[in-house]
Amino acid sequence: MTAQSSSTSTSTSTSSYCAYNNTNRNNSRRMSRRTTRSHLNGSAALILLLAITRTVGSDAGALPLTRSAPSLAKANHESLVASTCVANLHKANGQCLIPRGGSTTAAAAAQATASAASESAVLTSAESLKMVGIVTAFMTFRDAVLHHAQEWWRGADTAKFLLAGAVAGIVSRTAVSPLEVVATAQMVRGGNKNMVGELAELFKTEGVKGFFKGNGANCLKVAPTRGVQFFAFETFKQKLVDWKRASMGLEDDAEIVLNPIERLVAGGFAGMIASSMVYPIEVVKTMLTMYPGKYAGIGAAFRGVLSEVGPKGLYAGLGPTLIAMFPYVGVEFMIYETSKIAIEKFLGDRREAEGGDMLAVVSLPIIVSLGLGALAGAAAQTSAHPLDVVRKRLQIQGINGNPVLYKNTIDCITGVAGKEGMGALYKGLGPACVATIPGTGIAYITYEFMKKFFELSSV
Prior knowledge:
13 helices
């Protein structure tokens, strides 16, 4: 009994000890696992903290001191996205690798994106409105300038006449430049070589550019000359018409017809005024034509004349020029306008006899205008050519080694006629007429075209 109890007690003790040992081992294992998890969690937290600190420090160091509004919007967006993404870790496509907060994070990111887009749209709209304002102001200013320019141009008959005459002069002189070069050479040098021979020799020695030497200076001279001529001629005619109306006691709109002598006087004074204004350029043109290799251009020719003979060299030959311009320009305008008016009256009467429209404006055919201009130019050149020769001779005196032979216009006329004969006063008349006939015709055709284009009318 005692043995059995002892055995039972021993067995119970052994079982209790084993159970206690098992419990202790289990507790030790639990504690070990808890310790391990604690160490792991602490290590992960430390690594995460270091990563976040490094990322924030890097971003903060990269921020500039000042940012524009689009940059700030972008920075706010990136900051919000970074705060919703663990350690700011992203995939290659920009998607967050470890998001915080699940759907809340996605919603915050979407809100940030929408906010950035809204700010960008507002800024873009502001810049667009600014550009629209600038463009609108420019268009308004442009329209105002054009409006005032158009209003001024409608009443600017003076400028229109000047421009019409200038264009006519440039076109006509350029067209006949080769013939004018030959005429100038024959008037200055003399000689018996004909025009074809002069042109052939000029082409052989200087080529095509020789045909247009001095043309720049010539156009620079003829543009204001022709412009002032036509404008002064129209002005003098209007003054004569107003004077005749006042002297006859007629109304301001009464029709007055000028006779040929009155047109001759108006044209003569117009030619003198125009020539006196641009005469220095005429001297320079002569220098460039006669000595093309000596002067590099118009400015060099001006300086050359001033250095060799002084300021008076720019007006050498002005006296015979003014004397020659009165019959030259006067005859040209008189013949052209008188013939034109007579032909227009004839065509108008014939249209009336045929029962045509009396209100229609009679326009001369181009070929008729060309013929009238050629006739007027030939008559004008022939009447004034001796004085033109004298003018050229006086212009080159004392320049480029040429001797001073004549004191004034009368001395030059008598000297040339006495030494070379009366025929010398008409040297170069053939080439001059050949140049003048088509040149004057082209000038009047161009002038009539420009008058129609500008809606101008003549007395």
